[in-house]
Specification:
This protein is α+β, with helices and mostly antiparallel strands. It folds into 2 domains: 61 residues; 316 residues, phage-related protein like fold, CATH 3.90.1690. The strands form 3 sheets. Strands 6-13-10-7-9-8 form a 6-stranded mixed beta sheet. Strands 1, 4, 5, 11 and 12 form a 5-stranded mixed beta sheet that branches. Helix 1 runs antiparallel to helix 2.
Length: 399
Amino acid sequence: MKKINELKAQLREKRDRLGELSQVRELTDEQKAEMTQLKREVANIKDEMDDAIREMQIAQLQQPAQPKSKNAELREFLRAAKKGSAFSIPMNRESMSYGPQSGGYQGTEGYVQGIEVKELIDTERKDADILAAAGVPMTTGVVGNKIQWAFAGGVEAVFANELAHTTERTISLDKQSPVQNRLTLRVRFSNQMLENSNFDLQGYIVKHVSDAIRDKINWAAASTTKATETLYGGFAQDTESGTYGQEGYVPGKQAGTYSTFSKETAAEMIAKIAKRNLKLNNCLFVMGAEDYWTMKVTPMDQGSGIMLIGNDGKLLGVPVFVDNAINRSTQKGALSGHNIGLGNFAYMPTMQHGNIRLSIDGGSAVAADTDEVIVTINADFSMTVLKDGADAFVLYAKS
């Protein structure tokens, strides 16, 4: 193409000069000779350009066909889906594949490849993700009844006298199984958008699905509400009962109250975890936005100029995660109270189980009534607070 453009520029230059000479009524012998030479050069440039175009076409034929963009394929698939009734297909754990067929999820003709599960469920992204902030990844694609638990407690070597008993904590995993719950969400596309725009469909799906999953996981992990048949985290657990270390002790969240939150209150909460021989790794303070910004301008000590929550977003060296869910009884309910939690989220393994199911509805009465294509995604998740580590979560309420 560069060669062809150079030849076109030369051709324009020669033709302009020929045009100038043609305007002269009486040519001198020198001008006649120049015009003859210019015509010869124009013919040569045309031949050279034809050769360059032919070489380019041959080179293109030898190149493998360029695949359609993933977004274009997804658009075609959704357009085709609206012609029939709703159908559902699973997405495998490695990549999210679309198609009405029942098998062959790796590039079989009729499938759209391109959205990986890790794009939908990624605890390493920079968005406000409670698991990412705690440094705890979510396990995806868990299959079978036997769960290979991620070890949460860490390992510590200790010195001890000969024959002395050690008192390190051990976490019992063999008697506890995760409880799976179905999470469902919908993404809707108007047919006008499918037909008349270059809208980024794939990006739209990834953005809204991943945001919805993240928001639901954040809500479950931060909420103090223990809802039936749904996910809930350590702050929604029952409070501990009995005396720690004594017979009959039942682990649970450690509860407390405060009147004015101070560095002493924060230290007291941290100490509740530390004195149980629980690690402070993967710990987060969780609080609502109002309390967070109040502590950002509340000094540790009068006149010190050092705030409770510093510029690094930490309180006494522990990261702070802001989520109003800790002050709501439902995900979108009204704010109430000033709860502040501290938890080691390594003791709350969160998993996505098996395949993710994708349904396309473009032909039902519901879809036709609103003139849209409805994409529904169903997935199974579990959020399990380890029984022996339930007291790794501390919740203080403002009295």
